[in-house]
Amino acid sequence: MGLQGYVGSGEDVRRIRRQEQQLEEERTNREAEKQQRDANVSAAGFRQFGKGAVETLEAAIGQQTVGLVTRAEFAEKQRTLQEQIAAHQDKRKHEEVQAANKVKEEKQAKKAKLASKTKLSFADDVEEEADEGAELSAKHNFKAAKVSGIGKDPSTHTAFLPDKEREQQEQHLREQLKQEYELRQQVVKNEPLQITYSYWDGTGHRRQVVVRKGDTISQFLKAVKLQLSEEFREVRSTSVSNLMYVKEDLVLPHNLSFYDLIISKARGKSGPLFHFDVYDDVRLEHNANVEKEESHAGKVCARHWYDKSKHIFPASRWEVYDPEKDYSNYTVK
């Protein structure tokens, strides 16, 4: 359609030209669609995702060989389609590799971005570099020092917190002190102790015997029996369990040791139980507020004598020693 010989207003001319342009665009679009359809026909196998390469190739050949074709044309079209399919597959693989690399790069960039957000920055770039260098140097020095308890500040006061290593050291120290104390105790217990006693059968027979501070009353009475057996026949026939040791009017149990009396500073009715010699406390002025330190010789007697004489003096004052009882306020009745 043309405008030759047409006489009209300018608006009509412009409308006619627009219509001609639209018609020309429509014609061009139709030709492009036709060419696209032809290209789609040649690559028909690319849209059949569920089929194999052989089925795709057969379908594409069937669409392009409609009608009678020669053997050479059929082979040429088959070769062309095979090349197109191979090129498409290579392109697809390349695109998949690129897509995978892109996803990987995006993940790495995301991780780097998250890591950068967790860091605080309050200085310039130069100061940050200096701080990073100082931090690396401090970490290196810390590792070189091999400080125990990684993650703890060694300058922090943690004495109130449970510490396995400190508890082991304290336990080792306690065991060491315990062994030293027991060793000193053993040395003291092995020291000799001279005891002045009086064998009592109604009258006194004063003797002296040497034992160890760690010996018990039973061991002391055994030594006394050996000492008195030659002189007193009744002692010779008496067992150690039937002998009694009375000190400051108290009958001392056989299982009690002299060491226990000494370290506890035990006192009896009439004087200390930790002195085993004999002496008088002579004072120029008497003071009732100060205990007297007179020590009297302990008495060793047979139990059968005590049983028949405990109603008369001095056996009437005797009683069994009780370590929990206080005898400081005892008075003679």
Q: If you had to describe this structure to a student in words, what would you say it looks like?
A:
α2 (53-64) packs across α3. A six-stranded mixed β-sheet has the order 2-1-5-3-4-6. β3 and β4 (250-251) form a beta hairpin. The protein is built from nine helices and six strands; from the N terminus they run αααααββααββαβαβ. The protein starts with 9 loop residues before the first helix and ends in a 13-residue tail after the last strand. It is an alpha/beta fold and 333 residues long. The longest helix is centred in the N-terminal third of the chain and has 47 residues, at 71-117. The protein is rod-shaped, with a radius of gyration of 60 Å.
Write a compact overview of the structure shown.
A hairpin with a 3-residue loop joins strand 1 (192-200) and strand 2. This protein has nine helices and six strands.
β-strand number: 6
Shape: rod-shaped
- Radius of gyration, whole Å: 60 Å
| Poorly predicted ranges | 45-50, 280-291
Structural class: alpha/beta
Percentage of residues assigned to helices: 40-55%
* Spatial order of strands in the largest sheet: 2-1-5-3-4-6
Largest sheet: 6 strands, mixed
Secondary-structure element series:
HHHHHEEHHEEHEHE
Tell me the fraction of residues in β-strands, as a range. 5-15%
Compute the number of helices. Answer: 9
On the 0 to 100 scale, the average pLDDT is 76
Terminal CA distance reads 160 Å
Name its key features.
single chain, 333 residues, alpha/beta, six-stranded mixed β-sheet, 9 helices, 50% helix
List the helices and strands and how they pair.
Blueprint: H1 10-42, H2 53-64, H3 71-117, H4 125-145, H5 164-189, E1 192-200, E2 204-212, H6 217-228, H7 233-236, E3 243-247, E4 250-251, H8 258-263, E5 298-302, H9 303-309, E6 319-320
Parallel strand pairs: 1-5, 4-6
Antiparallel strand pairs: 1-2, 3-4, 3-5
Helix pairs in contact: 2-3
